[in-house]
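Good day; I would like, with your permission, to put a structural problem before you. A protein sequence and the structure tokens that stand for its backbone fold form the material at issue. Thank you for your consideration; the sequence and its tokens are set out here:
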Amino acid sequence: MDTLSYKTKSANKATVNKSWYVVDAEDKVLGRLASGVAMVLRGKHKPDFTPHVDCGDNVIVINAEKVRLTGKKMTDREYVRNSGYPGGKYTTTPKEILEKQPHKLVENAVKGMLPHNPLGRKIANNLHVYTGPEHEHKAQKPQNLDLNSIK
């Protein structure tokens, strides 16, 4: 048996095939939606997944304002940020974020599930979140994606 024919093939930038998918966030739980989208963005659903390469697909999330949170998280959860000055602490709730910028809630949830390094920041550019059912990526001919079917 020829052992040289059993080499592990590693994906690289030139050999990766990227697809476009649309995910409808209407009545989906935020965390479950974000973990499924992060897995597709990273490329973990593909057989040629390579951890150090951007081998994931492009994902378009529509109806971001209709995402839901379970329990009392809509009012009790707090997102904290700081301006860097003394007393510059700001807290916001998901309810306030949904009123002002609904797409930010989904973007932050997905970005939190990606690697926190330069590759993760590059992968995050493949995420496109829109409020409402329309998006501007019709030319890419995206396919509908059911996150429950991907394991």
Observations:
- Helices lie at 30-42, 73-76, 94-100, 102-111, 118-124.
- The domain at 18-69+100-146 is CATH 3.90.1180.10 (Ribosomal Protein L13p; Chain: A;).
- The two ends are 34 Å apart (CA to CA).
